[in-house]
């Protein structure tokens, strides 16, 4: 299965313009505990470079665009976030990097948990070791 999984949001627009509603456990596949947004990212600045042990997120580009790289330790895929009608699902234990932010990019992120620095894996070698354990531990 591709690492790039989208949620398509129903478009509730009419002749007056566009409207999208985000609802926990409906359009967004988890209970939303936190919302943050990334904007005014400098030119040639990249962000991310970490994975999360448990956190699940949906990232929606409300304006502009940026390029997201996802890596599960075996496969690396990338995609552009450039429209507010689609959310990119980022599961736990996925290394992510964000590049090529346009000056007007506003990236909204919905998160399944409150902020907890202990959930971050910020070293790629540590991520690879942990992801091998997660994927290769036989379940009984
Ligand atoms: C992710 C990508 C897509 C907080 O205090 N609370 C928060 O909710 C967040 C998200 C961050 N912070 C602090 C932690 C750092 O001192 O804000 C600072 C910047 O965070 P970070 O360097 O982790 O930002 P990004 O853009 O590299 O990553 C963020 C999220 O942290 C991360 O979960 O998946 O966006």
Q: How is the secondary structure organized here?
A:
Blueprint: E1 5-8, E2 34-39, E3 47-52, E4 57-63, E5 66-71, E6 76-81, E7 86-90, E8 95-99, E9 106-111, E10 120-121, H1 124-136
Bound molecules: dTDP-4-keto-6-deoxyglucose.
CATH homologous superfamily identity: Jelly Rolls
Gap between N and C termini, in Å? Answer: 24 Å
Total strands: the figure is 10
Report the sheet-strand fraction. Answer: 35-45%
**What is the string of helix and strand elements?**
EEEEEEEEEEH
Basic shape: globular
Low-confidence stretches: none
The biggest sheet amounts to: 5 strands, antiparallel
Class inferred from helices and paired strands: mainly beta
The average pLDDT is: 95
Count of distinct structural domains: 1
What is the number of helices?
A: 1
CATH architecture type = Sandwich
Helix content: under 10%
Distinct compounds present: dTDP-4-keto-6-deoxyglucose
CATH classification class = Mainly Beta
- CATH fold naming: Jelly Rolls
Side by side, the strands of the main sheet go 1-7-4-9-2
Question: Radius of gyration, Cα only, in angstroms?
Answer: 16 Å
């Amino acid at each position: 299965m591709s690492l790039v999984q989208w949620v398509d949001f129903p478009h509730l627009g009419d002749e007056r313009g566009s409207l999208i509603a985000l609802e926990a456990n409906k359009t967004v596949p988890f209970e939303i505990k936190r919302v943050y947004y990334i904007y005014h990212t400098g030119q040639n600045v990249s962000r991310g470079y970490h994975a999360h042990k448990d956190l699940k997120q949906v990232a929606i580009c409300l304006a502009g665009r940026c390029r997201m790289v996802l890596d599960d330790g075996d496969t690396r895929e990338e995609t552009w976030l450039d429209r507010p009608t689609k959310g990119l699902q980022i599961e736990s234990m996925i290394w992510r990097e964000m590049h090529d932010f346009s000056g007007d990019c506003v990236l909204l992120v919905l998160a399944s948990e409150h902020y907890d620095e202990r959930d971050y894996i910020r070293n790629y070698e540590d991520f690879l070791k942990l992801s091998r354990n997660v994927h290769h531990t036989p379940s009984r």
